[in-house]
Design a protein that fits this description.
Order of helices and strands: HEHHEEEEEEHEEHH
CATH architecture: Sandwich
Structural class: alpha+beta
Strand content: 15-25%
Number of strands: 9
Low-confidence stretches: 3-8, 10-25
CATH topology: Jelly Rolls
Radius of gyration: 17 Å
Largest sheet: 5 strands, antiparallel
Number of helices: 6
Helix content: 40-55%
Length: 166
């Protein structure tokens, strides 16, 4: 009976775990990654060499509509850049926003080591370029212009949240 109870507990735990995007069978060629990256405002000041490095360190992930990509309070280990599709951002207090192609999320947890500050859910099927923590830190160190843009976007998001609370 104890074995059955442990199996049921494990099942309930798995059932309540958020769905995660999976590495897709889809492979985006380096050239296509470079083309996509060149259109992202965040990366517009990067040199060709820096863009090649970004393309090299990214993984392509695809997820279906309704997939929870990040959950508030969870640890954050990735930075996400939307290639195709749309995502909904829900922050505590009921504030919502949408993100689309060229926009990004996940930077706060990577910058400060804290938990995720928002739940991000795919509204449509979505394709993302994902950069792991160790690569993100290296990228910011080697591309100061990129660091400034990430910080400016972060400041803008904080200001928008503050204005919505007033």
């Amino acid at each position: 009976m104890e074995l059955v109870n442990r199996m049921m507990d494990a099942y309930e735990e798995l059932k309540s775990a958020p769905p995660q995007p999976v590495l897709s069978g889809f492979r985006m060629a380096q050239d296509e990654k470079m083309e996509r990256l060149q259109t992202v405002p965040l990366l517009e000041e990067c040199t060709g060499r820096q863009l090649r490095e970004v393309a090299r360190i990214t993984d392509v992930f695809e997820a279906g509509a309704g997939t929870v990509l990040t959950r508030v309070g969870d640890p954050g280990e990735e930075f996400f850049l939307i290639v195709d599709g749309r995502a909904r951002v829900d922050v505590p207090g009921g504030k919502q926003s949408q993100l689309g192609p060229g926009e990004f999320f996940g930077e706060m947890s990577l910058l400060d080591g804290g938990p995720r500050s928002a739940t991000v859910t795919a509204e449509t099927p979505i394709r993302l370029l994902v950069i792991k923590r160790r690569n993100f830190t290296t990228l910011l160190r080697e591309a100061p212009g990129l660091t400034m843009k990430v910080l400016a976007t972060l400041s803008k998001r904080v200001r928008q949240l503050e204005q919505s609370r007033v």
